[in-house]
Design a protein that fits this description.
Elements: H1 20-43, E1 47-52, E2 54-62, H2 63-85
Helix pairs in contact: 1-2
């Protein structure tokens, strides 16, 4: 019998990869947190003033824009840190 037709060592031997089994709960958790964050952002739609580092630089924007931008910056920082680590 050749190694390609072996009964015990094929690529589809019934086992999942080392990390494959743990990814589904993590993805579900991340998606749930994303949905909750988006609900939070879009529930807070009032206008707000934002001061950036110095009191003289003020901008009035909808609160959802500020929350969404802050979340995007946090996600980018998290992705960068995860990529550097692994």
């Amino acid at each position: 019998m050749s190694p390609m037709t072996s009964e015990s060592g094929g690529a589809s031997g019934g086992k999942t990869g080392g990390k494959g089994g743990a990814q589904a709960p993590v993805r579900i958790t991340v998606l749930a947190l994303l949905v909750l964050a988006l609900i939070f952002v879009f529930e807070n739609t009032g206008a707000t003033r934002i001061r950036l580092l110095v009191p003289e630089v003020t901008v009035t924007v909808p609160l959802w824009t500020a929350l969404l931008a802050t979340g995007a910056i946090g996600a980018l920082c998290g992705a960068y840190a995860a990529r550097r680590r692994g």
